[in-house]
Design goal:
Oligomer: single chain
Order of helices and strands: HHHHHH
Strand content: under 5%
Number of helices: 6
Structural class: mainly alpha
Distance between the termini: 59 Å
Low-confidence stretches: 42-60
Helix content: 40-55%
Largest sheet: none
Radius of gyration: 36 Å
């Protein structure tokens, strides 16, 4: 510090200048040290799904549950991890990325079925259960039960079977397996099977609309709120 009388440098904190003897002003007291920040202490035994005073969940969500948004790869991983899981919730990104994945596989096997007709049956068998399961969870995410999903898959499977029978009937008719192609019973049966195709189509449109709806923003009877 500098002396206020002679302007020479003198040691800090002295009351009188050792050179000219001038009294020096008292040094200002240092500012008090602020107290350490206080953070809320959370109970160690709190489990995921329970809430604190800020309405926040403790812990990390289960690995099989999806956040509000997932990427393509993460959605496919959740699709196969939850292969037979009809509980919980799945958000829109998880469902539609899985739908895109299965659609691409169906296209590839559909092209392959030109050479190997039975190829189209393979993805239908592999994806039947997980596609129903992810649709169940998507319905749960909108606060709905999966009854309509069951009806869709049952009618679709029935139509698939009846449609296959109809194709074979037409093939047999073309090669003379039936004595009279105007046999009314055969054509009535084919007509009924064709008409039944409208049932899963209408239910499928309704399901598609529901799967486009946003998530219920809070926890419901099927699982936690989106995080």
């Amino acid at each position: 510090m500098r002396c206020i009388g002679c302007d020479n440098m003198i040691p800090d904190g002295v009351k009188f200048c050792p050179i000219c003897g001038a009294k020096q002003p008292a040094a200002a007291a240092p500012p008090p040290t602020p107290p350490p920040a206080q953070y809320p202490q959370y109970p160690q035994d709190q489990q995921y799904g329970q809430y604190n005073q800020y309405q926040q969940n403790y812990g990390a969500p289960p690995a099989k549950e999806s956040p509000c948004y997932v990427g393509f790869g993460e959605a496919i991983g959740l699709y196969f991890k939850n292969y037979v899981n009809f509980n919980g919730r799945s958000t829109r990104s998880e469902y539609w990325f899985a739908f895109l994945f299965t659609s691409l596989i169906y296209i590839v096997f559909g092209i392959a079925s030109i050479i190997f007709p039975a190829a189209i049956y393979l993805p239908a068998m592999v994806f039947f259960v997980p596609s129903m399961a992810v649709k169940f969870r998507r319905f749960h995410d909108t606060g709905r039960k999966g009854t309509l999903v069951v009806l869709l898959h049952v009618t679709s499977a029935l139509y698939f079977i009846l449609g296959t029978i109809a194709i074979f009937c037409l093939i047999f008719a073309m090669f003379g397996a039936f004595d009279d192609l105007s046999e009314p019973t055969m054509w009535i049966s084919l007509g009924v099977m064709s008409f039944m195709g409208y049932i899963p189509m209408i239910i499928g449109i309704i399901c598609m609309v529901i799967c486009c709806l946003p998530s219920v923003p809070e926890a419901n009877e099927y699982g936690r709120a989106p995080y």
